[in-house]
Design brief:
The protein is mainly β and 136 residues long. It is 7% helix and 52% strand.
């Protein structure tokens, strides 16, 4: 089995130099399963204000043909990164930052083709970590 990992890369969120709350208050992490079997999706939010620090992790299952999203709180993050990991090449993901009024922030919009993508096999250390995480 191959796992697929997507990343927004580093995202600047400060309205002015190092100020919070940032332009995006929430980040909608979306996924759709275009495959014929269930797929797992894990979303990790990292703070990049200095060292990379894991802020939150959510995992969910998508049935075939299903879509879902999770809302991440990024209001107090000057810089952040969102990583998606899935066990299916048929899952597409996207990300959408929204401001305090709930409007989309154009600079924080990530379509599937705009996200950095990396596949890795069940023999890699990333796969072993993912398998371990799924058990908890």
């Amino acid at each position: 089995m191959t796992l697929v990992k997507y990343s927004t890369g580093p995202v600047e969120n400060a309205i002015n130099l190092a100020t919070v709350p940032g332009e995006s208050r929430t980040f909608f992490a979306k996924a759709v399963n275009n495959g014929s079997s269930n797929a797992q999706v894990r979303v990790r939010l990292y703070r990049l204000n200095g060292a990379k620090v894991l802020v939150s992790t959510v995992t969910f299952t998508l049935a075939p043909g299903a879509s879902s999203f999770r809302v991440l709180d990024v209001a107090n993050l000057v810089q952040f990164e969102v990583e998606f990991t899935t066990n299916s090449k048929h899952v597409l993901v996207s990300g959408w930052g929204k401001n305090a009024s709930g409007r989309l922030v154009a600079a924080h919009r990530y379509s599937p083709t705009e996200l950095a993508k990396k596949g890795f096999s069940k023999h890699s250390k990333h796969y072993k970590h993912y398998k371990h995480y799924k058990k908890h």
